[in-house]
Amino acid sequence: MANKGSILMERYELGRLLGQGTFAKVYYARSIRNGQSVAIKVIDKEKVLRVGLVNQIKREISVMRLVRHPNIVHLYEVMATKTKIYFVMEYAKGGELFNKVAKGKLKEDVARKYFQQLINAVDFCHSRGVYHRDLKPENLLLDDDENLKISDFGLSAFVESKRQDGLLHTMCGTPAYVAPEVINRKGYDGAKADIWSCGVVLFVLLAGYLPFQDSNLMEIYRKIGKAEFRCPSWFPPEARRLLSKMLDPNPSTRISLAKIRGSTWFRRGISTSSKSTIVDYVSTDLASANTEEKQEVARIPNLNAFDIISLYAKFDLSKLFEEPILKKEAKFTSWKPASVIISKLEDTAKRLKLKVSKRDAGLLRFEGTKEGRKGILAINAEIFEVIEAFHLVEVKKSDGDTLEYQEILNEGLRPGLQDIVWTWQEEKQPQQSEDQLDEQPNDQLQQQQQQQLQPQQHLIQQEQLP
């Protein structure tokens, strides 16, 4: 590890100081290889060891490896020397959202855009069993296109951190943004605490100041405990109602993320589907038309000998030519005619509220009607003719969230297609999110299959801290 500092300088050209804290400094840098702008967080290892924060650093690495999302700062790599730890991260050129709010309240549409991105990213974190616990405008960055990026997962917690009572007990966060149950020290639900903080952020975006203010910290805590705040006159009625539900001092009755996303004020301006590409479902009886059946089969691509051999894990030759990747796909074989397979796929998709957006040469594309955690889910189903009357169908996620795809596949497509399936090909890799498994060594896959959401043990083994 002693040469890691020189490796850093070989890979990156360090520039100006962007910011600093007690244990770390953040610098702007450029990749020497491709000129990409990055931010490098340089942590003083001696200080971290002295105050016992090594586990916190390891947890932050684990979390950032796990939560890959467009609205979360991306961690590219981690390096270390005897004295320093380096986080190479996505560079957010727009700086902190706090700097915008410090100049005054934001326009409603601008505030809503940032809030929508915040909620989507927080919802994604929670789906991976991660609670941020320090959400505030200072930890929300903006990129070149003014898109929000959550940063600083140093105080985050995993779902596994809960005690036997099912609650978290570490008091942390920034006083003005912390939930009342966290202050009470009786245990709290990390998801509910994050929702409270998001409510405070929304208030700040719309008002330009904090909902709970006082020169005395204990008075601030008293106001937080009673949710004692007043919305300015310019707040829209729908936003007031949403805020009152988010800043509910009782976590058991506080609004959920799902209901926030379904609220009228939140939904405004969001398109529920890609209307330019999605066409209405049209039911057709292809099986009864022999001529159409022949045309359909003729258009379906045939598999050559190499393709057929490669279908089976024992004879997978692709690893000789390319790096192994974790494909988010499933395959099944069928003796049914292509037209019957197509019709069954479309019928099943319709029941699952998926719309056909493309139908061409044995390729079907289905899209969801609602935006998920990583955009609208899109699934491709491609049919190949192996021999006459014997087909292989590949079902693959092309857009959206992997866990949502797996839920649709396992709970909807597999049971819905069972009467046309001869056999499902066994998965070559465990079905997990690319966010968990990105850049992981292949010899860890068996362990990860059993521990899908226990990242603190296995996600940082590529960058062991000395």
Automatic annotation (TrEMBL):
Where do the segments described as Disordered lie?
427-466
- Provide ranges: composition bias, Low complexity: 442-466
Cofactor dependency: Mn(2+)
Q: Name one GO molecular function term.
A: protein serine/threonine kinase activity
Query: Might you name a Gene Ontology BP term for this protein?
Result: signal transduction
Q: Which CDD domains match?
A: CIPK_C, STKc_SnRK3
- Of which family is this protein a member? Belongs to the protein kinase superfamily. CAMK Ser/Thr protein kinase family. SNF1 subfamily.
For this entry, the protein name equals non-specific serine/threonine protein kinase
For this protein's source organism, the top of the classification is: Eukaryota, Viridiplantae, Streptophyta, Embryophyta, Tracheophyta
Q: Which gene encodes it?
A: CIPK18_0
